[in-house]
Each structure stands twice: as structure tokens, then as C-alpha cells.
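[Discussion] Sanity-checking designs against the backbone

I'm trying to build intuition for which residues belong where. Below is a C-alpha cell string of 149 positions. I'd appreciate it if someone posts a full sequence so I can compare it with mine line by line.
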């Protein structure tokens, strides 16, 4: 099998998923956010009750400090997050979702559940687990390559 095809197919699938969300039924209500904003909102919301910092976002999404800073600043300007000081360290600012972001997340969840169901339609639980393990292995391969450079 042509290994050049794997990356191209993953890219194609990513583009299809992105387009789906760009034209989703709730698009008008969530127009103010980009795809990356949506992923960050979900990341923070799923960790409710825990303090989340910029470094956590950098690590989870494997993005640079400057990229995270830029994205979070734009999200703050859009009224999606607030950066709140932490008592134990004045330099640290925890990331907190605003009510606007929480409302948007509810709409995004509806669309995401529909997309997830569509993606795994016709797959057995075992096939899904296998696919996830392959994807995780690919991510590890890329991480290892980056560490070698």
C-alpha cells in the first residue's frame, strides 16, 4: 500500500469534518468562534472544577506558547474566556469559560455528537478501538520524529 496515501486521506477527512462544522445547523449561533476555539472551549469545559492554564492547552493540543497566547487573547476579546489570577502565584492566570462560551458549547455538542455517530456508523466496538489505537500510534510516531529533530 502506498504510505503517502495515509496522510492525504487523514487530511481529506479532516477537511470534510471541518466543512461539516462550518455549515452545521447551529452555525449562525456560533459564528464568533473558529474551529480551534471550539476545541479549546470543549477542553476547558470537560475539565470543570479543575484549574486550567495556558500550559495545559499548549501540551494537550501540542501547540507553541506563542500560538496558544494568540488564540487565547482572541478568545478573550470575543468574550469566550476570562483569565483569572491565582492566589498562590500572581504570574499564573487560569482559563475560565464565560457564560457565552458555555452556551456555545451546548450547541457544539449537539453537532459533535451527530458527527461522531456519523464517523463510526457501521463500525463494531472492536473496530473503533483498533482505529483509535492506530491513530494514537501515528501521533506517537510523529511526536518521536519531532523529538529526534
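Best answer:
Here's mine. Compare freely.
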Amino acid at each position: 500500500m502506498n504510505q503517502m496515501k495515509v496522510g492525504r486521506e487523514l487530511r481529506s477527512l479532516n477537511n470534510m469534518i471541518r466543512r461539516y462544522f462550518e455549515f452545521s445547523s447551529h452555525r449562525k449561533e456560533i459564528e464568533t468562534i473558529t474551529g480551534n476555539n471550539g476545541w479549546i472551549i470543549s477542553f476547558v469545559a470537560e475539565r470543570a472544577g479543575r484549574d486550567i492554564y495556558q500550559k495545559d492547552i499548549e501540551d494537550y493540543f501540542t501547540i507553541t506558547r506563542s500560538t496558544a497566547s494568540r488564540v487565547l487573547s482572541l478568545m478573550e476579546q470575543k468574550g469566550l474566556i476570562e483569565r483569572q489570577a491565582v492566589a498562590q502565584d500572581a504570574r499564573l492566570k487560569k482559563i475560565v469559560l464565560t457564560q457565552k462560551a458555555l452556551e456555545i458549547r451546548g450547541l457544539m455538542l449537539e453537532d459533535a455528537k451527530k458527527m461522531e455517530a456519523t464517523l463510526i456508523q457501521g463500525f463494531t466496538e472492536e473496530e473503533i478501538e483498533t482505529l483509535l489505537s492506530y491513530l494514537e500510534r501515528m501521533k506517537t510516531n510523529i511526536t518521536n520524529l519531532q523529538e529526534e529533530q
